[in-house]
Every structure is written in structure tokens, then in C-alpha cells.
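Teaching note: in complex prediction, the entire set of molecules is handled at once rather than each chain in isolation. The prompt given to students was simply: 'Predict the structure of this complex.' The entities are:
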Amino acid sequence: MQLPNEIFIPEIARLVSDGKQVQFTPTGVSMRPFIEGGVDNVTLAKPADLQVGDIVLAEIQQQHYVLHRIYAIEGDALTLMGDGNLVGTEHCTRAQVLAKVIAIHSPKGRRKPLTRARLWRHMLRTRRLWLKIYRHLCI
Amino acid sequence: MKVLPGFALRPLGNEYLLIAESVELVNFNAMITLNESAAYLWRNVADKPSFDEHTLADLLLAEYEVLPEQALADARKTIASWQDAHLLTDI
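The expected output is the structure of the full assembly:
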């Protein structure tokens, strides 16, 4: 079942800040090919530190949340982007990061690799082609 | 029958979430929502070594103004929904 984000995400944030890990299945395609929305499930925890390449849950505007990768950090300012997006980034501060992904599992329970996706992050110009190939082969 | 261990009841908005939860991990993939009366029933049988439809019916009669037949029918429906959600085990 689906809870509305404005109820669900603050509950996740509260549990994570209490020191718990939280598991759920995110929706959407913005993190392909690393997280398949509606299929893979992610485990979130309180971020001890934040680095470029981490996948984080952030509140980028009031009650507007994304689960995207950190593409750049400049002091307190973070630039986020969905791995499955061709254009468009989001900006937030460290304080707006609610949780960090520490594991991704396929529906069968297989742990998917959690990398910093350095190659993928720099492949923006050919991303459209790779996503098209991914959609044909994997979905 | 009795309830399976490892579920926590969490109020959220106007309803309650029953979530598979250990000390460290809260799993929203294994979750159902309960309304007020279902949450009341769950709270009162969660620690019981065993219960049946009459246990739930008696709880409903104690708390709500319903006829005994309605209470039993509601108790049966609740048990069926908990069984569908794999929350119960036969002893």
C-alpha cells in the first residue's frame, strides 16, 4: 500500500534520526538503472557523513522530497541529480538531507551493488542511449 | 490462534500502521494500515498466548455499542483480513 509522501517521508526521517534503519520500495524511474522504482527496495539510515556519489533522501522544498544522488558538494550546498534523469538537478543544504541509502535489494532479496557511480555521473551526454539500452534489456 | 511476533503498531495521521519491525530495522514493505477499532483489537490481543473470534467479539462489545451478532461478524472479518496479511499463526 502507498502512503502519501507528506505523511510517509517525515515518519521515515523521524525513525532514521532515532537511529533505526528503514526499508521501503521507492516509486519512479529517476534513479534508473541503479534503483528500479516499484521493484527494488532501499535501506536508509542516518548519514554519518555525506560524500559525492551517496544516494540520499532530501527535502528540497517544503514537503517535496527526492531520493537522488549527490553530484556535487560545496561546503553546505549539495547538488543532487536522479541517475535516470537526462537534465535537471536539485539543490539543498546538508540539513535538508534526511537519510542516506545504505543498501539496495532486488525483490528476490539479492543485494545490488552500492557504488558512487562515478562513471555514470560523468556520462551525461551518452546517458540517454544507455538508459534506452537498459529499458530494452532489463525491463 | 495468536499474532506473529515482530510487528509494531504506529499511529500515523488518522490511522495506525502495523509494521514489521525489529530493534534495528523498520520494514515499510511489510506494512498494513489499521483503523481505530482494528488497532484497539490488535493492542488487546498482541500479548495473548491465544485468542479466537469470540475474544475479538467480546472486546468489541466492551468498547463499542454494537449488537452481539454484528460484533461476531466484525471479529470474523478482522481475523480474515489479518490472515490475508499473514499476521496470524495457528498454535
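Point out the following to students. The longest strand of chain A covers residues 64-74. The CA atoms of residues 44 and 101 of chain A lie 4 Å apart.
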